[in-house]
Design goal:
Distance between the termini: 55 Å
Radius of gyration: 30 Å
Number of strands: 0
Order of helices and strands: HHHHHHHHHHHHHHHHHHHHHHH
Helix content: over 70%
Shape: elongated
Number of helices: 23
Amino acid sequence: MDSSIVHALGGLGFFLLGIRWLTGGLRELAGERLREHLAKASSTPVRGAFTGALATAVIQSSSATTVAAVGFAGAGLIAFEQALGIILGANVGTTITGWIVALVGFKLKLGSISYLLLLLGALLHLVAGKRMIRTMGDVLAGFAMIFIGIDLLKEGMSSVASLLHIRQGLGESWSGRLLAVGFGVILTLLTQSSSATIAATLTAVSAGVIELPAALALAIGADVGTTATAALATVGGSVASRQTGWAHVIYNCLTGLMAFFLLPVYLWAAGRLVPAYLSSDPESVTVAFHTGFNLLGMVIALPFTRQLAALVRHLVPDREEDLTRELDALLLVSPQAALDAVAIVVRRLSAEAIALLREAISEDGLPTTEPLHRLLAAIQRCREYLARVISGGLDEKGVGVARVLALIHALDHVERLAERCLDARRAEAARTAEVFSGDIDLLRESLGTFLSVLSGTEAIEAGDLVAGVGSLAGDLESDYRDRRKAIVEDSVTGRLDPARVDGLLDALRWIRRCAWHYGRIARYVAREREQGDAAKP
């Protein structure tokens, strides 16, 4: 293989690795501040778009911005229309990479300085004791690798062109432009990075490998191709992430279609307004087109976010009955977003368990075993997801740790309560025994109140609710020995059939334990809400 081709491919690899290190480091430096700023500034789609663009430009990662938006929408913190605003803005913010390449990579000849920056970044990562300084080393190394990659791309691009014969007529006709768009889509799919496609395009047009019209069409292809990456990332994910993926696909394809037909208009206007730049600075002209059509698409789409959201909801309806549908692997890159999803699921599982207990002590009798086993399976999935969140790291301030502990305890008591509901014999004895009718009435009433609070239909202070539930469980616990003693004495004195004693004692223990687990669920759900509120901006 020709050495120039190796240089070009190696340069692309350096660029991809540099982008990964740069965005990873910037995202880590931003931390949960990214979520805070996005949540504060997403009250409307317009504000969300501005903040999404700014956040993406700063951290150089549209995926991190999109994940945060998915997390907010899935957790119910913002409406899907507001999440769409963030996504539209992220599309504009990600074009800043092209400007960095065009203005720094081509205008400033960094040369050997890039290698010195790479060495400095590596030393900071290896030697520094503080995590923040090591992360800054990653950012510096990633920045240097981007420009090393660009230099290698420029060295090898001319030989690649002579072998592929891609210069003749590409982008001159409508069919040629469409072919160039296809090349952009394919390259983006292969590299999994629209930024890499833009970098390769700028290098090619700078070296004279392709003409300016082809470069503009390739930029359109990069925008369309990146939607496939986003769509594939949401396969098997939550409804919120799949809706986001479809919104991304629809918006980018429509914007790309608009840009495709505006391409000759842009070339004509640039030829009239800045004719010298068409030949002397085709890189900036290409990046300006890329930013321009994304910005225009955002401006046009923002007034119609409600209609776009309705279309996406129609294409991806929320009809799933999966109790753990919010547990999306896409959210694992942001521990707080993932914990928000787990909290929603735990509250739903708590409501399921309490509804099953309420049904078990109702006059209609026990529920079928199918929903009970479905609930137990969902609890296991939630535990597995929570383990993945923990392995990804938690808040150093301890807020994340406290939330996780509350969620773990709540899940444990939900599981134990569900297992109690499987005990048909004791549940029936408790429901039908006249001696326990008062306890069952109190428990049934309290369960109804708690279900209303979990569903949001009744507003009760968490402290008051927990105190009320705890009081009920505490009374049953403190009176247990006296109640047990009274049942035994009644059997001895003949006031109670001795054959029923064991069944009544089992039923008493069943009521006591159910009330205990119910009380603990209320306590830990309330505690998690307090910790979750403390973690919010």
